[in-house]
């Protein structure tokens, strides 16, 4: 990580909103299993190009994307339903919490209110949180089927901030995908990016390799005390 002064002067969030899939929960392999099966049923390969097509999107958006890729736009709804059934089964059976997720969430919860905002529908979000041991952790949670437009629209973050009672400008998001990062930025929320595809950079304010990043946890540890130093990290934004 390179030194920067992007958040020097004492900025810290009044609340934090976490993404779920690929950020708190290692569900991307589960999604990949389900997505690969959808393609395999049609005799088609599934690789990096196809994964980039769907990562971070809501189940409806994924259905539209796959249908377009297959040249079958009318099949979007049925593809979404097929994929949702497959991924729910896999998540419920084998999804695990990301390394460092529980410790980081607890560290943040000790300092500021927290929420989770996921592009998964409510049933799948609850299944993932329960499987990972996060049930009851978040007083505020927002699912894709509870807003007018899912990520990358700002609705999910604006809804989470409203329910938390905080200004988006005073809120920090944790995201792993470009879709989620765009959503947070559109809502005026600062973003820590933890890329689930390491070779695909995120347009986040701060980018770290994992939730275990020691400088990240050290910075969060200052939120409950007086802050006199400067953050050192990979600053990519221009906000003060």
Automatic annotation (TrEMBL):
- A Pfam family assignment: Hydrolase
Specify the superkingdom.
Bacteria
Q: Which residues form a coiled coil?
A: none
* Family matches, as InterPro entries: HAD-like_sf, HAD-SF_hydro_IA, HAD_sf, PGP-like_dom2
What is the name listed in the Swiss-Prot or TrEMBL entry for this protein?
A: HAD family phosphatase
Species source reads Kineosporia corallincola
